[in-house]
Every structure is written in C-alpha cells, then in structure tokens.
Amino acid sequence: LQSQLSDVMLAPGSYFLAVDGFSSGSAGSYSLSITEIGDPCEAYNANILQGTAPCTLTGTTVGASDIYSGDGGDVGMEISIPSAGHWDFDACQAGTGYNVALYLFTTNPCEGGTLIASSTTSNCTAPWGAGRLMEVNLAAGTYHLMASNTWTTTGTFEVHVQETPPRPSQGGPDEFGYIWINSENQAGPEYS
C-alpha cells in the first residue's frame, strides 16, 4: 500500500510527519520522498487563454495546476467584455468532455481577484452538469473566467461567451409562439 500527500501549501518552518502501518500488525521499511513543486500560480499564469467576447475558448484541465477549487486542474481565461449588459458563459458544448465547473472573478485569483459568480453543475445533459453562468450583469472590462475540475475529473472544455440574447419585448411572441405577461398583467417580460 502506498500513500501520498500532494499540493500541500506550507509556510516556511518545521513540520512533523507521522508514518504508520495500515493495520496494527503492519511492520517493515518505508521510503519517504519530499519534493517542492513551487508556486502553482506560476504554471497557472503561464497558460491563461485570451478572448474578446463574443468568443469561444477551448482547453484542457488535464495536468493543470490547482489554485482554487481543491480538486486540481484549474485553467484561466482573460475575457474582455466590450459593453455593459448581461452575458452568458456556457460550457454545455460539444467540445466539453466532462462536468467542468466555471468560476468568474473580477481579476486573476492569483492576484487577489474576487469571485463574482460560480456554476459547479447545471441542467446540461451532454456532458452532465457542465458549468453555465447565464445572464451575468457586467460592466465593460476584462474579467477572469476559470474552468475547473469537479470531483477530481479532468478533460477538455469548450466555453462560449456571448451577450445574453434579448428576451421578447412587449408580449412577443417569442421563438415558440408564446406571449409573455409580467406580474403587473402587462405584455412583456420582467427583465432588468
């Protein structure tokens, strides 16, 4: 039986590590290897994807650094949003090979970015649970989107970034022929 601790962030100092057998009768020799892996943000920052919305970004979390989720495999994307409005970030696409989580930050989390929105699952069925951030109200500017592993799975991702399509106005009909009535019994959706 072998055991390992990986990606353990430690401050400089002295630490004690206990090595114990699997059961009360376990005895024998062991080998201990300790390797410094460096700052995970260095590898993360070296592989940030760039895009200007509307855009599609693709990548993989296989072998990527873990800087946020704790499940390993985080990939960053710097996305320029050209105008204020509601924006969709959707990984429910043919190029997504697993249930990727999406996290949207004000700036790079390695540089202190603040989380704006997150989606660890959705109603996407192929692949099940691929992340979607829909109708996120943003000002024009550059934002940091992260594709991350969920439940330690890894794989490819494809994220479409686009302005939220307009809803029908003044009663529609929408693309399905429905007429919208808001809570004030007036034609048109409730949307701000």
Q: What do these coordinates show?
A:
The protein is mostly beta strands. Helix content is 4%, strand content 30%. It contains one helix and nine strands. It has one helix spanning 40-46; strands spanning 49-52, 55-60, 74-81, 85-90, 101-105, 115-119, 132-138, 141-148, 156-163. The strands form two sheets. Strands 1-3-8-5-6 form a five-stranded mixed β-sheet, with no helix packed on it. Strands 2-9-4-7 form a four-stranded antiparallel β-sheet, with no helix packed on it. It is elongated and about 75 Å long. The N and C termini lie far apart (58 Å).
Topology:
Blueprint: H1 40-46, E1 49-52, E2 55-60, E3 74-81, E4 85-90, E5 101-105, E6 115-119, E7 132-138, E8 141-148, E9 156-163
Parallel strand pairs: 1-3
Antiparallel strand pairs: 2-9, 3-8, 4-7, 4-9, 5-6, 5-8
Number of strands: 9
Share in helix = under 10%
Please state the average pLDDT score: 82
Shape summary = elongated
Determine the strand fraction and express it as a percent band: 25-35%
Structural class, judged by helices and strands? Answer: mainly beta
Largest sheet: 5 strands, mixed
Q: How many alpha or pi helices?
A: 1
Query: How widely separated are the two ends?
Result: 58 Å
Strand order in the sheet with the most strands: 1-3-8-5-6
Low-confidence stretches: none
How would you spell out the order of helices and strands?
HEEEEEEEEE
